[in-house]
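Allow me, if you will, to draw on your knowledge of protein folds for a short while. The matter concerns a single protein, recorded as an amino acid sequence and a row of backbone structure tokens. Kindly check, if you would, that the fold set down in the tokens agrees with what the sequence suggests. You will find the record immediately after this paragraph.
***
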Amino acid sequence: MRARFQSVQILAEVMTDNRLISVEIDEETLSSSGPDAEHERRVAIFDLIEENQFGVIDHEGGPYVLHLSMMERKLVFDIRLEDGTNVHTFILSISPFRGIIRDYFMICESYYSAIKTQSPHQIEAIDMARRGIHNEGSTLFAERLEGKIDVDFDTSRRLFTLICALHAGTARSPGN
């Protein structure tokens, strides 16, 4: 039975080359502010790698390695093949996301506070608002990737989560 499961898994991997297999963060431009921020990043990357649909438009297929860095307050997506071959680099302005990210952090803080003191009904209402803001950010992210990267909505959500985790680590660091 176990051998059958492994062959299905291998077949699934062969059929899904339009995916990310690794995400690497440039520590010089996107350094984390501490262990909590680093943990958030690792979880976001793990979730993204675990399941994603990521295809570069006008490229025959991956799997891909994504290198993220920051340049002049813009996020640089350096996409490579598994062997290191450059596929495409593009720059994404973070400016359109600032308000959504700010709102997302505010509602998350409200959620964590509510867990301690509010009723389950109130917590659920705040969580629904949090998911709504997260969906808004995910939709904007997918729109900004359009014509460059083909992602499904769940991958867009995971990428938005990663962007929030990166922002949290750099925005809360000393001196910012």
Q: What stands out?
A: The chain has a mean pLDDT of 85. The chain has one domain: 2-171. The CA atoms of residues 29 and 138 lie 23 Å apart.
